[in-house]
Design goal:
6 helices; mainly alpha
């Protein structure tokens, strides 16, 4: 399932082909390819960490509002810590998706510009075929993650408001009062996790094309 961490420079050359040899310095092409492939590695890593943190946050909230919780303060501290961690993980994941969309758009636009400069028609055709195929593959990731940001922000809003509410009323009655909202938020966290599955699936589908094998 997990994307393999192969040599980035080797992958960059593979992805770039010979396009960087036309109309400019090869280093520029390598930099673009490294940025594009690095975006995939970053998105993969952040998405998987976010899934783990969603589960931890959900479990800590469920424990906090469990009837008869013997140590409300300890349970609240665990929940509060997990909310902060999820906020950090989620912000990074959303940022990576945005960066990947931007990096890949710039990369393939430049590839297209350089590709038309080939004098050899066979190389030009092969370059364009490869560019179209890879640009379509890259586009799957931000497309699959289109609903992630909205779900994440909605869930975080409720998680933080629950934290504020209980920081002012960390009593059995206070917990009982907020439990219906907490239960709905736990369901929303599960929906958020489900919204990440298409992104992770798309990443797994990309692996054979970029790295070879399964």
């Amino acid at each position: 399932m997990k994307l393999r961490n192969r040599s980035l420079p080797i992958f960059a050359m593979f992805l770039l082909g010979t396009a960087s040899l036309v109309g400019g310095c090869a280093t520029t092409g390598m930099d673009r390819a490294s940025s594009a492939s690095g975006s995939i590695q970053d998105v993969d890593s952040e998405m998987r960490k976010m899934v783990v943190q969603i589960d931890l946050t959900s479990a800590s909230l469920e424990s906090l509002v469990k009837p008869g919780q013997p140590d409300l303060e300890k349970a609240f501290d665990a929940y509060s810590d997990n909310v902060s961690k999820l906020e950090n993980e989620g912000s990074r994941a959303v940022k990576r998706l945005d960066e990947m969309k931007l990096n890949s758009r710039e990369y393939f636009a430049e590839w297209e510009k350089q590709g038309i400069a080939y004098k050899n028609p066979q190389i030009r055709e092969q370059s364009e075929e490869r560019r179209l195929k890879l640009s379509e593959i890259y586009a799957r990731i931000p497309a699959a993650g289109a609903g992630v940001k909205v779900s994440y922000l909605a869930a975080m809003s409720d998680l933080k408001e629950i934290r504020i509410y209980l920081s002012n009323d960390l009593t059995p009655k206070g917990v009982e009062t907020i439990t219906p909202v907490a239960t709905k938020t736990i369901q929303d966290l599960e929906s958020l996790k489900i919204s990440l599955h298409p992104v992770i699936t798309a990443l797994d589908e990309i692996e054979p094309e970029l790295y070879g094998g399964k």
